[in-house]
Amino acid sequence: MATVLVTGANRGIGLEYCRQLKARGDQVVAVCRQATPELAALGVRIEAGIELTEEAAIADLVGRLDGLALDAVILNAGVLQSMGLEDLDSEGIRRQFEVNALAPLLLARALVSQMPRGSKLALMTSRMGSIDDNSSGGSYGYRMSKVALNIAGKSLAIDLAPRGIAVAILHPGLVRTRMINFNPSGIEPEQAVQGLLARLDALTLETSGGFWHSNGERLPW
Ligand SMILES: NC(=O)c1ccc[n+]([C@@H]2O[C@H](COP(=O)([O-])OP(=O)(O)OC[C@H]3O[C@@H](n4cnc5c(N)ncnc54)[C@H](OP(=O)(O)O)[C@@H]3O)[C@@H](O)[C@H]2O)c1
């Protein structure tokens, strides 16, 4: 049984991570701003009231964990604000950068001391953060924030290797959640998380720092 911390655990992909991890017998620490009835129904440990862009909240979370050893940390919380060149919103760009790139980096730094050798860190990114894959333009703030997360993930893979911690940079696919207004062309969170957990299970120090689709495809930077 592994102990796994998941952020953005109250809905969408994070909630599904918690459901599948619990179902396979892992101990889950579900981190969120506000719990939902769906999360509460899982019967996992919930750490609510954590606004990830506030460094004091990250410190509060670390204090609540009280040194609990974490075999995996899944930094999944994220935000998407669509915007093109015509409606650039600098505050929205800053916000996405804070939530999608800076907060995971600060939380990873705060938690590594309680991640033993052999533990794993997953960063939930997006192929929207792939420069090579960008054929449609736009989505400035979201794309910029996910590129920043990707490069942070690569540096983390290098810096954490001596501590025996492996890092996966993961794209879930287009997934039917509130983030994309439950777009019917997306896959269900259940399918996405099955693939994401397979990627996490397969992750080793040798493959650390890779950028994968939940379906196993290696994505270009
Ligand atoms: N769905 C897709 O097609 C897709 C595709 C590529 C990548 N992704 C990535 O996958 C991850 C999960 O996405 P999703 O589809 O599950 O999105 P979602 O349904 O919109 O859920 C987002 C989660 O992030 C949390 N969150 C956002 N801002 C936060 C903050 N400042 N502090 C703490 N928690 C915060 C939300 O909490 P609240 O409920 O409190 O807002 C929610 O739990 C994201 O990183 C996203 O970028 C998703």
Please explain how this structure is put together.
This protein is of the alpha/beta class and 221 residues long. The chain has one domain (3-213): Rossmann fold. Helix content is 38%, strand content 14%. It is built from six helices and seven strands. Strands 3-2-1-4-5-6-7 form a seven-stranded parallel β-sheet, sandwiched between helices. The protein binds NADP nicotinamide-adenine-dinucleotide phosphate (NAP).
Topology:
Layout: E1 3-7, H1 12-23, E2 27-31, H2 37-40, E3 45-47, H3 55-65, E4 72-75, H4 90-111, E5 120-124, H5 140-160, E6 166-171, H6 189-202, E7 210-213
Parallel strand pairs: 1-2, 1-4, 2-3, 4-5, 5-6, 6-7
Helix pairs in contact: 1-6, 3-4, 4-5
The chain binds NADP nicotinamide-adenine-dinucleotide phosphate.
Order of helices and strands: EHEHEHEHEHEHE
CATH architecture: 3-Layer(aba) Sandwich
**Mind telling me the CATH superfamily name?**
NAD(P)-binding Rossmann-like Domain
Number of domains: 1
Low-pLDDT stretches are none
- Counting DSSP E segments of at least 2 residues, the number of strands comes to 7
Question: Which structural class fits the helix and strand makeup?
Answer: alpha/beta
Oligomer: single chain
What is the CATH domain class?
A: Alpha Beta
Spatial order of the strands forming the largest sheet: 3-2-1-4-5-6-7
Radius of gyration of CA atoms, rounded to a whole number: 16 Å
Number of helices: 6
The ligands found in this model are: NADP nicotinamide-adenine-dinucleotide phosphate
Q: Strand share of the residues?
A: 5-15%
Helix content: 25-40%
